[in-house]
Amino acid sequence: MAAGTVTRKGTASSRDPRFSLCLLAAKQYAAFLYAESFPCQATVHGLGHTPHPLAQPDKIHRLGYKAKQGYVVYEIPVHCGGRKCPVPKGATSGKPAPGVKQLQFVRSLQSVAEATWWHCGALRVTNSYWVGEDSTGKFFQVMITDPFHKATRRNPDTQWITKPVHKHRDMCGLASAGCTSCGHGKGHKFHHNIGGSRRAAWRSCNTIQLHYYN
Questions:
Q1: Which of 37, 95, 113, 175 suits 16 as a labelling partner, its CA being 20 to 30 A distant?
Q2: Helices (H), the chain
Q3: In this predicted structure, what is the pLDDT of residue 148?
Q4: Which stretches of the chain score pLDDT less than 70?
């Protein structure tokens, strides 16, 4: 997948040389350095392979990244702002009307960036972190692992991601951002969703099992 730069028609992105020349011509040197500091790249599909060097190599190594075969890092842009309700002609057919625009998405933008496994086939998301943002979106670098690579399957430290329970782990709340969006955690603040969800916790606490022994 060849990495390029996504630009809107008639506009220039921060990676366009015309944009940098305009900043230098306006003597906005601080803004020029800030725009050039973003390593954000994307393809026409909104998904781009991140070349070396990484944006924050120390942080991604703390999250579990290893510079070896079987690991790949993708940089994913996510559009900021609210979400529009998909109703015909703005008719919600409800009283009171919940509205059409300015609706807040339930999950975080980082979890949306993690949920891009359909572009990568059978690869599995390991972790992600924030890289930067501009006026239209935020950019995240997502670390993805190949569970079928020999380097991954033969290493005892990475064999856990090859198990079938980690299929689509980013959509099951097993990744970092998805786990936070699902409300999972440890401590007294997370007692109401032990077992996967609030319904599962309520069901386990309100179910009586009477075993019959002969």
A1: 113
A2: 17-25, 29-36, 57-62, 109-114, 150-153, 176-181, 198-205
A3: 92
A4: 1-54, 95-98, 117-118, 214
Among the listed residues 12, 11, 67, the one whose alpha carbon sits nearest the alpha carbon of residue 35? 12
| Amino acid code (one letter) for 204 | S
Output the CA angle 114-190-194, nearest 5 degrees.
85
Three-state secondary structure string covering 37-94: CCCCCECCCCCEECCCCCCCHHHHHHCCCCCCCCEEEEEEEEECCCECCCCHHHCCCC
Q: HSE of 24 in the Cβ direction (CA atoms, 13 Å)?
A: 8
Q: How far is CA 6 from CA 14, 126, 151, 168, 170, in A?
A: 10, 26, 34, 27, 25
Residue 114: CB partners within 8 Å, gap ≥ 6? Answer: 125, 128, 140, 142, 170, 175, 177, 178
pLDDT of residue 28: 57
pLDDT digits (tens, 9 = 90+) for 38-47: 544 444 345 5
Task: Write out the two tokens for 130.
Answer: 């924030």
